[in-house]
Write a structure and sequence with these properties.
- It is a single chain.
- The protein is an alpha/beta fold and 381 residues long.
- It is built from 13 helices and twelve strands.
- The strands form two sheets. The protein has a seven-stranded mixed sheet with strand order 1-7-6-5-4-2-3, with helices on both faces. It has a five-stranded mixed sheet with strand order 8-9-12-11-10, with helices on one face.
- The longest helix has 20 residues.
- The relative contact order is 0.13.
- Bound molecules: pyridoxal-5'-phosphate (PLP).
- The site of pyridoxal-5'-phosphate (PLP) has 15 residues, from helix 3 and helix 4.
- Pyridoxal-5'-phosphate binds next to helix 3 and helix 4.
Length: 381
């Protein structure tokens, strides 16, 4: 089955025998067991719940993965993956990752006896002289918010030679555009709050992988720490996933159009989008993904335009963090999504105060461009 067919027919069909086209919501915290000796598949919903199991199966099918785990948020998913690490372990992480991941690494790692190193460009990084306690690579490609592309195949190969675990946050592209496990990664994490759910109406996280031993460890941690996705949100997430492919095509078509439009405008000094031929990551992106997604960012020309007026004048782009919903959003990473990075680090990795990030929705692209155009006109000094 092709992707969009699997999105609708994959996962676990209704197993009540009633022929419901949607998997039922099991709002039950606990399940009665046969007798003292025999326990059924579902015992207590922190450990496993049928509706959660259905969305875990669906997400795993779409990823081409053996195992899936669903969490209450993307950060719960990432945190669970970090629970695989032992005291003393070191993690290599790419220089612009999601602000929440950075907050985790820069605040909680020390308390847990873990260390990290920021890698500016994994594509050229030599894996030869690692500190001996290095255990994992954590990367996000395209990165957030500068959309820098990392060659997953190359990094996975090199990291594996050193016995490292490769973890990829694939939130920006989803399995529709990019499948990191097929490119050599060990674990994929998602904020399913974004494109998978797709309607900005729930928080969710996913972890997908093929290795059974790692899966058992993660499942143990999930049950122990308890950040699971609720049955109701599992249902909503499945509902979102059914249209994932259709939405991603539209997000991308709109983003491509807007990226090209902005590239020709004086108000945008530089546009970051891996689907632009001018982007240094363009070729790698094409070699490992079937699309570039719906997020782009650009440096706003503050000399000649007023950024405040520009943002305020937009009618269709809500001024908000997040991405992946049907509606378009705009945010300023330096003070919003990436405020957990120090000013010095922001400067070092290129998150400038005049950087704006667009999460392009699925509205009509003509209206979106018109909206940007009128806001630029108003903002002209
Ligand atoms: C939003 C986001 C997260 C965190 O997910 P939550 O669902 O908000 O906890 C992690 N990674 C990326 C790339 C994100 O965009």
């Amino acid at each position: 089955m092709e992707y969009q067919t699997k999105a609708i027919h994959g996962g676990i069909p209704d197993d009540t025998g009633r022929g419901a086209v949607n998997y039922p919501i099991y709002l039950s915290s606990t399940f009665c067991q046969e007798d003292m000796e025999h326990f059924k598949d579902f015992v207590y919903s922190r450990g496993a719940n049928p509706t959660r199991a259905a969305v875990e199966r669906l997400a795993a099918d779409l990823e081409g993965a053996r195992f899936g785990l669903a969490f209450a948020t993307g950060m719960a998913a990432t945190s669970n993956v970090f629970d695989l690490l032992q005291k003393g372990d070191n993690v290599l992480i790419n220089s612009n990752v999601y602000g929440g991941t950075w907050r985790f690494v820069s605040n909680l790692f020390e308390r847990r006896g873990l260390t990290y190193e920021i890698i500016d460009d994994f594509n050229t990084f030599e894996f030869k002289h690692l500190s001996p306690n290095t255990r994992a690579v954590f990367l996000e490609t395209p990165s957030n918010p500068l959309l820098a592309v990392t060659d997953i195949r190359k990094v996975s190969r090199r990291a594996k030679e050193q016995g490292l675990l490769v973890i990829v946050d694939n939130t920006f592209l989803t399995s529709y555009f990019q499948k990191p496990l097929e490119l050599g990664a060990d674990i994929v994490v998602y904020s399913a709050t974004k494109y998978y759910a797709g309607h900005s109406d729930l928080l969710a996280g996913l972890v997908l992988l093929n290795d059974e031993e790692l899966y058992q460890q993660l499942k143990f941690c999930q049950n122990t720490t308890g950040g699971v996705l609720s049955p109701f949100d599992s249902f909503l997430l499945m509902r979102g996933i059914k249209t994932l492919g259709v939405r991603m095509d539209r997000h991308q078509a709109n983003a491509e159009e807007i990226a090209s439009y902005l590239e020709g405008r004086e108000a945008a000094l530089k546009v970051f989008y891996p689907g632009l031929t001018s982007n240094p990551g363009y070729e790698i992106q094409r070699s490992q993904a079937s699309g570039s997604g719906g997020v782009l960012s650009f440096l706003f020309n503050q000399e000649e335009y007023d950024m405040e007026i520009f943002v305020k004048s937009l009618k269709l782009f809500g001024f908000a963090v997040s991405l992946g919903g049907v509606e378009s959003l705009i945010c300023r990473p330096a003070t919003m999504t990436h405020e957990s990075y120090s000013a010095k680090l922001q400067e070092q990795i290129g998150i400038r105060p005049n950087l704006l990030r667009l999460a392009v929705g699925i509205e009509d692209k003509k209206d979106l461009i018109q909206d940007l155009e009128q806001a630029i006109t108003r903002a002209r000094k």
